[in-house]
Amino acid sequence: PETADFKQVMSGLVENLNSEINAPDNLLKDVMSGNQNVDIHDVMTAMAKSEISVNVATQITGKVINAYDRIMQISV
User: What is the predicted pLDDT for the residue at 10?
Assistant: First the structure.
């Protein structure tokens, strides 16, 4: 089976993060325009998910940078 390379995995994660970050804004616009299918609880849930996604992305970025630094310190 074909596996995704690092670039594809990271770009997919960034796209998912972008959609998670934009979700609360879109829901808030729906609430403000009077859409009855969306309530403020949905907005608050989306905001919490967005915050968690940003925290996870920050942690992953730090781990990748640490791994890169360790690889660069290896003497050949």
Answer: 84
Only one residue has tokens 């003497």, namely: 75
In tens digits, the chain (76 residues) has pLDDT values of 678 888 888 898 899 999 999 999 999 998 888 888 888 898 899 999 999 999 999 998 999 999 999 999 998 7
Whole-angstrom distance, CA of residue 53 vs CA of residue 57? 6
Residue 57 token pair: 């992305």
CB 21 within 8 A of CB 54: yes
Say how far apart CA 19 and CA 21 lie, in whole Å: 5
Residue 3: helix, strand or coil by DSSP?
coil
Helices 40-73 and 6-32 cross at an angle (nearest 10°) of 160
Report yes or no: 56 and 21 within 8 Å, Cβ to Cβ: no
